[in-house]
Amino acid sequence: MPTHPTRAGEGERIEHEERAPQAGDVVDAEAFDRLVRARRRFTIVVGGLFLALFLTFLALAGWAHDFMGERIASGLTVGYALAVVCIVAVWVVAWAYGRAATRSFDPLSDEAIDEASRS
Amino acid sequence: MSVLAASTAHGLTLGVFAVILALTLLITRWAAKRTRSADQFWAAGRGISGAQNGLAIAGDYMSAAAFLGTVGLIYLFGFDGFVTGVAALASFVTVLLLLAERMRNAGRFTMADVLAFRLNARPARTAAAIGTLCVVGFYLIAQMIAAGALFEALAGITFPIAVVATGVFMLAYVIFGGMLATTWVQIIKAVLLMSGVIVLTVLVLNRVSWNPFAVMDQATKHTKDGDSFLAPGLFFKKPLDTVSFGLAFLLGTAGLPHILMRFFTVPDAKAARTSVGWAVGIIGCFYLLVSIVGFGARDILGQAGEKTVGDGGNLAAPFVAQSLGGGAGTFGGDVFLAIISAIAFATILAVVAGLVIAASGAVAHDIWTNVVRRGEGDEREEVRIGRIAAGTVAIVAMVLAILAGKGFNIQFLVSLTFAVAASANFPSLLLALTWPRFNTTGALVGVGTGLIVAIGLIILSPTVWPGPDSEGSPFPLTNPAIVSIPVGFIGCWVGTMLGAREPRERFTELHARAETGLGAERATA
Q1: Complex ipTM
Q2: Which residues of chain A does B240 touch, with a Cβ-Cβ cutoff of 8 Å?
Q3: Separation of alpha carbons B188 and B75, rounded Å
Q4: Which domains are present in chain B?
Q5: Are A16 and B519 in contact (CB under 8 A)?
Q6: In Å, how far are B131, B144, B298, B400, B409 from B168, measured between CA atoms?
Q7: pLDDT, tens only, B299-351
Q8: Which one of A65, A68, A119 makes the best mutation probe of the B interface by having the most chain B beta carbons within 10 Å?
Q9: Contact B288 A36 (CB under 8 A)
């Protein structure tokens, strides 16, 4: 396949300008469809879980003052523990997104461009 | 006599600060030699690595409000202060999942590039540039006032001179060193700020045998609020205030032009997401440490300290440093006070430099080159106008900050910044990237309604409404986000439905580019 553009990450020069696939072909590629779905599913599931956690935290901080002020241990309140959980959750989301992107989104994106350049 | 009136403390503060400034100016000189093209001026040639950009995002994002303000809020109000930190960090989930990679792929220099890519370019660009300038302008004036007030309190320089000095340095970075200098100033600031907070935390923990919860336990013994100091409700008086404030942050950061602009400085989308990873790691640790310093401040300064820490408790952190260093009048106390104060100034400089370069992009790249000149001008002209724009924006901000004066309510400006970013900028940006049917009318109506409703509700809110304690303000909440964000989205939707359908090809082009990076701007550095 001499006119086949190399994929990003293969260490060769990418020459999109000369042999770039058309946007329309990329969007029509079957892999593009899978990419958009995979990313959307991740955003809805992981983003939704985080949103639920964060909104619960805000609601409890807003309405449940006594509960949030309850001590789990000396000096440690439910509120502080939940705040730390939220911070750790942000880290987990960032890590999980990076993992999903490397394992799933990046290869699918390359595949879609590949597919489009062959069509 | 104020503990800070001691001139040795002022002299030391200025001395430490002078060292930091000298370092940043050297970097600016180095960067100036590498700043010629528009790519270099606004995007540092897209050669910043993911880790570097993560540090720079942290440096761009953690304002004086994040450091001095959060320590102060925790010192004054306990747990609610920490809630603000959690919300500030949570916002990066929105940035990462919805915008970071797509912005990198689809944009060039400014937020408006993304809207102009698929919509009717000139009106969409104008709307986005106005949204950018409002957000950046409010935030810039707030930071300048904070800088002036701090300089005056901690270094003994009068407010107007302090504001002008801040403006001059921020301009020097931007005009000569562009985004490259701004980036490195932000990186240095992030490292300094983290180091300062780590040292403060270690010293606070050292007093209580390394148990962070003992700090909180101790804090309750030094407040009239007792145990409720560790519970919410002392700062946010109404439950909906907490929620509205949280939402303003959650979606607001994703509409802050100076933060989004940072994603254009990395080589590709992968580096964009890596930078968010670094940024949340640093910012999360920062707020965890700041919570310990904040509760420690209550333990150390006690109830009596409330009279001396200034509005919003902004001086709590420097005072804690002084006390931990040995106390007022001691050499250790003065040195430590000087270091923490100098770090606070460096913090402000890094943030305002980021704001000015974002504003210069909106004026020069968006309004001048693409709206006024319809893309006719060459790159050299664009960069020249960018420098002039940076100077103009900075001078206007300096004048407004001096006119407003140090007593001006900065909290109002900061909540306005996030509310406008979340309600005017974020909806149209997200919909432009993801909704095929979205059109120019939708963007114009969305930005317009988001802007007007957010500003209008803040004027009607207890923060601004005149009268004793602002009782009976027409709008009950201090932050309008819970109303203005939905209104911003509804505005986008209504406008889209009223406007004419636009050809699908432009969205297809943007969609392919945003999702896969096909045809995205490449690194030139």
Answers
A1: 0.94
A2: 62
A3: 27
A4: 3-516 (1.20.1730.10)
A5: yes
A6: 25, 11, 36, 15, 24
A7: 999 998 898 887 778 889 999 999 999 988 888 998 999 999 999 989 999 99
A8: A65
A9: no
